[in-house]
Amino acid sequence: MPDQKILVAQGGGPTAVINQSLVGVVEEARRCWPDRPVYGARHGVRGIVAEDFVELSRETRATLEAVAATPAAALGSTRDKPDAAYCTGIFKVLQAHAITQFFYIGGNDSSDTVRIVAEEAARAGYPLRCIHIPKTIDNDLMENDHTPGYASAARFVAQAFAGADLDNRALPGVYVGVVMGRHAGFLTAAAAGCRTRADDGPHLIYLPERVFDTERFLAEVKATHDRLGRCVVAVSEGIHDASGEPIAVQLAKTVERDAHGNVQLSGSGALADDLCELIKTRLKIKRVRGDTFGYLQRSFLGCVSAVDQREAREVGEAAVQFARHAGRDGSVAIQRLSGAGGYAVEFKLLPLTAVAGRTRVMDEALLDAARSDVSPAFVHWLRPLLGADLPQAARLAGHPVARLLDK
Amino acid sequence: MPDQKILVAQGGGPTAVINQSLVGVVEEARRCWPDRPVYGARHGVRGIVAEDFVELSRETRATLEAVAATPAAALGSTRDKPDAAYCTGIFKVLQAHAITQFFYIGGNDSSDTVRIVAEEAARAGYPLRCIHIPKTIDNDLMENDHTPGYASAARFVAQAFAGADLDNRALPGVYVGVVMGRHAGFLTAAAAGCRTRADDGPHLIYLPERVFDTERFLAEVKATHDRLGRCVVAVSEGIHDASGEPIAVQLAKTVERDAHGNVQLSGSGALADDLCELIKTRLKIKRVRGDTFGYLQRSFLGCVSAVDQREAREVGEAAVQFARHAGRDGSVAIQRLSGAGGYAVEFKLLPLTAVAGRTRVMDEALLDAARSDVSPAFVHWLRPLLGADLPQAARLAGHPVARLLDK
After folding, report:
1. C-alpha dihedral sign at B301, B306, B311, B313
2. Residue B400 carries which DSSP code?
3. Of residues A80, A109, A112, A138, which has the active-site annotation?
4. Do residues B366 and B381 touch, judged by C-beta distance below 8 A?
5. Is A138 in the active site?
6. Mean of pLDDT values over A207-230
7. Is the pLDDT confidence value at B116 over 60?
8. Is A58 buried (19+), middle (13-18) or exposed (0-12) by CB count in 10 A?
9. Pick from B59, B78, B301: which is nearest to A162 by CB?
10. Which of A206, A211, A231, A213 is nearest to A283 (CA)?
């Protein structure tokens, strides 16, 4: 087939390092196939059916490197999930442009999109190599130790809670921070990432892996506040009751669903506000403050893990190498090498069905058995991902001065 | 008077660099008066009446430097505002410990506390040198070009909006970010700090210096969304109607007041949620998201302006020098040297009455005359404060590929 072309696109929610993977694909593709144009589709599969392409292989290296260091999705993204008719539109365009390699960077919804496109391509007899490149701040892809984008978002959450804990120590009360994560608690759990001393917050962490019990929550907040005079709480937006219904939905007046049928939990401060109201009313604690980290945690310009940047780049490069040499479609996965003590990863090509549309959640071993908290094993797993240059909070030694009055 | 001692304390809301000023006082005081103990009061004036002191002059330099780089208030803070009876309690303690120099790091409420303490000391004939050291993310102190803490918070807000704008470009819709600032819009205005291209957001900025008109707001959001297919909006928590009533209060069910009689606007996501609901309902735009930056913007660990760090340190050092040589009480102010083009500041000692309890707001010249936005003069004023290493977002050149179908 002459004049073959390569296509790359980005799907789902932006991350701090998704453009590293994009640039990894472009740089590796134009090194491996110097004569093949590399196209980028604007706004994911939506840009394919709309024939909205840019020629990435004409970009300068300086621009590509600057874009790689920029958060969000430089090509634009989409929440569209193609059905068979949508796929027919996709193949018509791919065929017209002689595109034979398709790289799609995204989460588990996007990997499902890749699976559908690959299956429809096989059915239509269209020769298309499809590689899914992982990306998600939720870290919820099966058979991945972690996913590009997670570590930088985790770093943001860890630094945010370290700061909120210092703020709460200076002006004591209860602080509730709500973190993204519908089914998987990995990102909320990262709130523990900067803890160094026994009384460092967050003191309580509520994850969607466990049933949220309002009475237990209130009792734990009260016990912590009684003990320390303050309490910092990390809450996942996806916490739910025993029936599986999200607490945010129970409390929200209106519910919005996206194209995947998911309830919209992000983009509202209601859960934090309602939990604060509950604490004020029931525990009679006066100073109770809530924050919802919202979009800051996935797109903040200037908070990134160097490990995440490096791996996100490499996963894009590895995708091109798999497309050349593996002889099959698949999803690139990051797996951690264990045994020798140090931190190292390797890149594998998994079948698309291993990842597509499935959700990984936290193992029991990563949670504290007794309290609403993560286990030391989780923190041990997390630390290398956050980067060696994680800022550290310090305290005064605080040599006490003897009282002279009212002794 | 033998065995004289120095006292330093921190009041009001924490900032990213308030500990730089604390360490500036401690280091300069123990260099100037090697034999005088430097005490720190825990939780501001509250710690003074409670005789809750630590001996800061016994801290190691390594600890002091690590604490200086840590956000929030290492000594703890308070919102207490002393009356005459409270002051009597303060003098009793100061006298018992032979404290003759009092440095209080805080905003305009704290400077008013210093003014009251200084006046009561004079009335009581107690020899006390009182110096107020400025600190506030709001940048609302009179006769200061800017205040320590503002630049780092401004940097957080600028980086947050740069990231949110990239996110909104990737997945278009309307984004509303609510920023702290009750009366002064400086911090919200910093949302413009990273803009580089004509279509960079925020596209609209609403400040408390102007009356907020809901119909005008909706018309401007609609016009921007029609033009760009998206719209990023920065809103100050303090926006109010023509009668001066905050929009947040109009919409909030319950209102909480602090010891200064101020309505509590922070710590709730309601304003962002209510503005989003308004846009969805009235403009029929589907994807509308809101974030409230909350406590992250003042305490986030790891987002700091180097200029702010340096100046916060120096303002503490300058306070000690004024206490030694000025022969009067006062408030240290940062003033910018103008004329030669480059950025430079000098430190002045103002009368406490020039600062105490008064609020500086943005001049008309810093606002755009026609649109809901800041003026180029504001951005010109802001840029040097954010630090030379402000991260920059990049875009693909985006060489278009000709359509082959549906031409």
Report:
1. positive
2. B
3. A138
4. yes
5. yes
6. 97
7. yes
8. middle
9. B301
10. A231
Q: Are strands B129-134 and B99-106 parallel, antiparallel or unpaired?
A: parallel
Partner residue facing B74 (CB), from A97, A396, A404:
A396
pLDDT for A63 beyond 80: yes
Interchain proximity A296–B301, CB inside 8 Å: no
How many C-alpha atoms does A69 have within 13 Å on its Cβ side? Answer: 12
Asked if the Cβ–Cβ distance from B171 to A14 is below 8 Å, we say: yes
pTM metric for this prediction: 0.95
Q: How many CB pairs under 8 A join A and B?
A: 261
Q: A289 at the B interface (CB within 8 A)?
A: yes
pLDDT tens-digit profile of A269-323? 889 988 998 999 999 999 999 999 999 999 999 999 999 999 999 999 999 999 9
Contact (CB, 8 A) for A250 and A261:
no
Dig out the tokens for A27 from the structure.
Answer: 């740089």
User: What pLDDT score does A345 carry?
Assistant: 97
Residues B6, B99: contact at Cβ < 8 Å? yes
Nearest to B397 by CA among A66, A34, A28, A1: A66
State how far the Cα of B362 lies from the Cα of B373, in Å rounded to an integer. Answer: 12
Of A66, A269, A300, Cβ closest to residue B270: A269
Tokens of B317: 């050092």
Q: Report cis status (omega within 30 of 0) of the bond before A202.
A: yes
Locus of tokens 């196939």? A33
- Cα(B375)–Cα(B236) distance, integer angstroms: 17
**Min CA distance, B50 vs chain A (Å)?**
9
